[in-house]
Amino acid sequence: MDRRRTEKNDETSAKERPTLKTLAFMTGLGVTTVSRALKDAPEIGAETRRRVQLVAKQIGYRPNRAGVRLRTGRTNVISLVLNTEREIMSFVSDIIYGVSEVLADTPYHLIVTPYSRSQDPLDPIRYLVETGSADGVIISRTQPNDARARYMLEHGIPFATHGRTDMGLVHPYHDFDNHAFAVEAVRRLAGMGRRKLALLTPPVGLTYHGHTVNGFADALSEVGATEIPFSTVSIDHSIEQIRTRTAQLMRRDVRPDGFVSSAAAATLALVAGIEDAGLKLGRDVDIVSKQSSDLLHLFRPELLIVNENFRLAGSELARSVLGWIGGAAPGSLQSLSVPGEVLAYKRSTD
Amino acid sequence: MDRRRTEKNDETSAKERPTLKTLAFMTGLGVTTVSRALKDAPEIGAETRRRVQLVAKQIGYRPNRAGVRLRTGRTNVISLVLNTEREIMSFVSDIIYGVSEVLADTPYHLIVTPYSRSQDPLDPIRYLVETGSADGVIISRTQPNDARARYMLEHGIPFATHGRTDMGLVHPYHDFDNHAFAVEAVRRLAGMGRRKLALLTPPVGLTYHGHTVNGFADALSEVGATEIPFSTVSIDHSIEQIRTRTAQLMRRDVRPDGFVSSAAAATLALVAGIEDAGLKLGRDVDIVSKQSSDLLHLFRPELLIVNENFRLAGSELARSVLGWIGGAAPGSLQSLSVPGEVLAYKRSTD
DNA sequence: TTGGCAATCTGTAACGTTTCAGTATATTGC
DNA sequence: GCAATATACTGAAACGTTACAGATTGCCAA
Asked: Which helix H or strand E contains A286, and what residues bound it?
């Protein structure tokens, strides 16, 4: 048996969710007219339009998503594609909140599409496109030559990337200016007299790894400091790995007196490694670190900190996808977030 | 004009997504038969069934979600309802990952439904129920008398709560045994000779606030220690507030020599406040803290730590909702996670 | 032979929406 | 005064799925 009420079309029982048919019955109009009136179609009389919209508001009419989706193919869904194991935690929720904030004022729902263990990052994208499960997609962990971005461009589905690509293709993105971050960080360290600097890099292969490395190198030559290579780990490595490798590095004769770190959690490991080697932050070494939540200064007040706002990133990304869906030019939906100043929480004379 | 191909029903062009009609054409059967065959209905011949399923797999048939949803009312969606501003960050992403993990092997999608600024927590629930946007719901920040749980029970939508309620109503939940956590924490502190203990509580009003407070009180009388009241802040307060209030507390004549803290971020503030007052962790005070990601020991090795696994919570919650949707008894879908042992990272003789 | 029945399979309708191709009525041009 | 036209509205069809109520076939008992 059908799971719904058996009397077909009982407009009197107010219990069921109102549909266009309900509205048509109440206003004495046809469903077509009601449908058009609700979306302000020009061929509907002004008064009729107002009347329909009034009644719709009164009885709390909400278009049935399945109906719309089946008929039009529009899902009213934005998908955020996440790597289940690599994404650093706190930053994910900030992005989600940022995206939500923007979608809240729209008919769009946010669905989280995970991809896990050494799976092809293209898999979830293919799934979304093939099943038509979303009108727009947001991806992160963007690479210079990103198969996912290319695929989505080819298939004409609007998307935005967290981080830029470098394939000569134009698409919406939001990025933090990691080049500028690295430059400012090096300048700051140099200004404190640090001359032998090491960089704890972003994950190799991601676009912002290159940005950061380049900014670091550019600034090194600008200030005339030298680099102590530290490429055995990145912020994607485990806390333990970073810690032990750092300790090894710091026990060598030629060791850095300054670090630039691209993530807060990695910085914790970095400091631990430094202290394992018997050295002291603020005396033997200084560190400039990015962070996304305001906690690092509690960890060690000697840390020099630059904030990266992932909530903002989420909002920008959502706005970009919506803009593209809305017909804006992809090239006009790109934004770059400039790092704020380097923050110090402890006077150097303390 | 229709946005789709104009020739109606061209089974030859392999470009469009296959539907039941496509399968019916290819197998020479009727759509009804195909539909039934795919779901292993008994009145379909065994060979036909195999044949249909083979073809379906070959051409990569996937049921159209909108079609199913419109016809059956089933959305194949689970909604995770989140407070956009209060939820501690890292823990949210862990839950999401946990939920995703379980949903990955099912046809279910995960949608994140946020509610923000001093909004009624019931609003998003009402929205979900009224618009029929999900087959199941997961909520957190559960209260002893939780309007959301009551509402969902009344409206017959399956859900699971992160944390228990106390209304005499039965529903699926997953909870961490915070009573046991507080008990173990107090015992540990007492075992180290700490006699004047303070509790940095969970947010007042949430169920696990009560559990924690009770466990703390029970253990205090068990070990014969006394409580130093510290109820001006909870882990929901800002880092700065916790820090200053802690410093104030620690400057008083009668001050705690041991703390139990319900969250990692709050513990950072706690330690900062203690050190602001010129006291030293491990010497003047000891702290047992919960954490959800494995970082606190890097912050201060003197910290005593109990892990809470939010990823597990997410998985359990997802399993519970799916179980309820699948017809299991709500009472059989409740789980309690017992705290592991208190972890120490620095020998007391160090 | 015929009636009954089990085993398979099928057509139709409906879920709620939008688009297409109208229809009916009033208005204008000449 | 009459055709042409603009204005306001409407029914039918379709998107892909499932439930219901048949339809067809073969087989067996009487």
From this structure: strand A286-291
Burial tier of A46 (Cβ tally within 10 Å: 0-12, 13-18, 19+): exposed
Element (DSSP H or E) covering residue B250: helix B239-250
Apex CA B118: angle with CA B134 and CA B135, to 5°?
5
Task: Chain B: give the shortest CA distance to residue A202, in Å.
Answer: 19
- For residue range B127-165, list pLDDT tens digits in order: 999 999 999 999 999 999 999 999 999 999 999 999 999
* Protein-proximal positions, strand D, CB < 7 A: 7-12, 14-21
Question: Cβ of B226 < 7 Å from strand C?
Answer: no
Are residues A115 and A121 in contact, defined by beta-carbon separation less than 8 angstroms? yes
Alpha helices by DSSP H, listed for chain A, are: 20-27, 31-38, 46-58, 65-72, 89-103, 122-131, 147-155, 178-191, 207-223, 239-250, 264-276, 296-299, 310-325
Integer distance in angstroms from CA A193 to C1' D17? 71
pLDDT along chain A (350 residues), means of 10: 38 70 95 95 90 96 98 98 75 91 96 87 97 97 97 97 97 98 98 97 96 98 97 93 97 97 95 96 97 91 96 97 97 97 68
Residue of A105, A110, A112 to mutate for B, most B C-beta atoms under 10 A? A112
Q: Which of B105, B87, B65 is nearest to B318 (CA)?
A: B105
Residue B39 CA, distance from chain mean position: 32
Contact B350, B135 (CB under 8 A): no
Nearest-angstrom CA–CA distance, A111 and B80: 10
Burial-class residue A336 by CB neighbours within 10 Å (0-12, 13-18, 19+). Answer: middle
pTM above 0.85, yes or no: yes
**Cβ distance A97 to A311 under 8 Å?**
yes
Q: For chain A, report the end-to-end CA distance as a whole number of angstroms.
A: 79
| Statement: the CB of A44 is under 7 Å from strand D | yes
Hey, what amino acid is at B182? A
Q: Which residues of A fall within a CB distance of 8 Å from B77? A: 111
User: How far does the CA of A70 sit from the C1' of C19, in Å?
Assistant: 13
